[in-house]
Design brief:
By secondary structure, the protein is α+β, with helices and mostly antiparallel strands. It folds into two domains: 228 residues, Metallo-beta-lactamase, Chain A (4-Layer Sandwich), CATH 3.60.15; 67 residues, no CATH class. Helix content is 33%, strand content 18%. The strands form three sheets. An eight-stranded mixed sheet has the order 1-2-3-4-5-6-7-8, with no helix packed on it. The model has no long low-confidence stretch (mean pLDDT 95). The structure holds zinc ion.
Amino acid sequence: MAIEPTTTENGLRLGDIEFIWARNSRDFFFSNSILIHDSQTTIVDPSSNFTYLEQLASRKVVQQVLNTHYHVDHRSLNHLFRNCQFICHEKDLAAILSFDNYLKYADSERNSDYVLWLKNIFSSLEILDGYVSILLKDGDLVPLKDHAVRVLHIPGHTPGHLALFFEDIDLLYTSDIDLTPLGPWYANISSDIDQFLASIRRVKLFHSRYYATSHGGRIYDREQFLEKLEKFESAFEKRDTRILEALNERPRDLKELSQIGIIFKSSQLSDPLKACFERQMVEKHLERFEKQGKIYQENGIWRLT
Ligand SMILES: [Zn+2]
């Protein structure tokens, strides 16, 4: 018999799989968490709800912590869980083990507002350097005793970004293929647009009854998921088009292209952090166009070929 979802105080439960929806907080960076009730109780991305996660940690019921990728908003409460096994994909290992590596993955400008912001939040969250005991790769089963949770490697957002397929409840968790209205986020050196697109195509073809993501407190059926995913995916093309139109008007450098408002609205770019993200994501599109032979650069000025 199919398992139906029931709402809980902190989110939603499907059988032994408990979704804890992110509660916005000033004290940590948040994303949804998943608690897998198993003989090997496991928490995925502990970053949702300080009060509840602290209770779980103090009851010492959690034996494993799985991070779907290295980003701070997916492991900002990892430190509450002591004496656990920590799990991630092998390609995100370096950025979890060492904050220096995190910075190398983040931004080529070593003193950008983004880097300064990261230094601040990491020192306040006690997660400068992490610890990992189990590495996963595509197709692996998460080490559980009573449930089958299959790993899908969906790189692009980060090199080791993971989706999880919960076989017992027929649900695919796509983490930061998160369907948010802003669209895909790839403002890291380690992000890759082509990989991101391939990963979107992969989850699109993955049939399951339910879907969930790391941001937004709900589950989707397949029809709802596909509708949101189409919009999410189309952001890449819209951004491409805006950049090519701007270069068709006249050649421009990265700085000028980053002030138009290709990713964020131009009114949001007064926020230094968003301005950094804008620069990095526009640069990703330019590098990709250059590889495709659509544009070239001379003295920092980009032109159509
Ligand atoms: Zn992320």
